[in-house]
Design goal:
The chain is of the alpha/beta class. The chain has nine helices and ten strands. The protein has a single domain, classed as 3-Layer(aba) Sandwich (Rossmann fold), CATH 3.40.50. The two termini are 16 Å apart.
Amino acid sequence: MEVIIQSDAQYASVVAARLISQLLREKPNAVIGFPSGQTPVPLYQELVRKYREGHIDFSRATTFNLDEFVGVPADHPASYHSFMHQHLFDHINIPKKNTHIPDGMAADIPEYCKRYEAEIEKAGGIDLQILGIGTEGHIGFNEPTSSLSSGMRTKTLTPRTRRDFAAQFGSEDRVPRYILTLGLGNVMKARTCVLLAFGKRKAHAVARTVEGPLTAMMPASVLQMHPIAKVFLDPQAASLLQNTSYYQWVYEGKPEWQKF
C-alpha cells in the first residue's frame, strides 16, 4: 500500500487526477470505477478542468459506479445517478452508453447484480478503481462485518451512515435503509485501487485501514492485500498514522519512472 500525503484535499485530488490522465494516455479505452459522495468532488472538478483544457480524453473510456440507493429512481436529486451527472458525466466527453451506475429500482436485485458483474467482466475488468472511505471504514457500502470476498449485493445502512445522508434526503427517516453496492471481492479485482480520504473525521478509519489489522470490522483494511493500492490523504486524515515521515520520504524519493 502506497500512502501519499499532500498539503490539502485539493492538491491530493490534483495528484490523483494525474494518475487517471496517465492511464487514459496509455490506454484510451480504460475501464474506471467511480464512487459517489463528497470526497471525490475535488477530483471530479479537476478531471473536468483537465478535459476542458484538452489534457484528458474520455471518449473511449468506460465507467462503472460502485453503488446506488435501493428504491431511489435515477432522476431523484439524491440519487447517485444525479450526483455523477451533476459532478462529472455532463461535463466531459464520455458517451452515455459507456457509463454504468447500479439501478436501485431493479425488480430482481440478485439477478441484476449478476448482470452488472458480468458487464464489468465483459468490459475487461476495472483498470482503476477510485474509492472513498466512511468513518466506520466502509468502501463502497460494504459496512463493518462485510465479507472480505463479497460480491455485488444489497447492504443495510448503519444508523450512523443514515445520519450522514439526512441532509441530502431532507431528514434521517427519509434515507433509504438499503444500498446496492459492489462487494469487497469486486473491488479487489481492480488492477489498481486509489483511496481518497480527507479531514479529521476520517483519521481513525485511515489509521486502522493502513496500519491496523486486516479485519472485516474495518472493511477498507482489505486493501492491505491489494497488489497496487494508493492512498491519497490530507494532513488531517493522516494525523493518526504512526509512520507519516516514512510515507513522505518514500513518496518524495520515487524514481522518475514511478512518478505521475
